[in-house]
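Minimal example, chain plus iron/sulfur cluster.
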Amino acid sequence: MVCALFHLGIINTEKSAIRVKKDDLDTSLNTPVFCRQCKEMKCLEGEEGIKDKARNRFVWSRVHAERCPFDALSILEEKAYHCNLCGGDPQCIKVCTPEAIRLVP
Ligand code: SF4
Ligand code: SF4
């Protein structure tokens, strides 16, 4: 919720750059899915010129998100939501009281 709220000013978990996948057997295995901040961005292969800009952007086009080999981004209609680390101050880490998320270099 905080991701969409911080970036878009709305509460809509479908427009969040981080989502939680539940396992099919519902054994409480919850896996967070988000952009891995790859050095070599397969999602932008052939478009080197826009990599730096794209890293900092939250809203991406669906086309780039669909090229991600990790299926990391939430896609809704023609847009996708990309973790830009909130410009260096990750909001999801701040509000996660069980401390389930950490940012490591
Ligand atoms: S969108 Fe996918 S390929 Fe691109 S940087 Fe993120 S995890 Fe890596
Ligand atoms: S670091 Fe920011 S952009 Fe990335 S998932 Fe967390 S709240 Fe969203």
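The radius of gyration is 14 Å. The mean pLDDT is 92.
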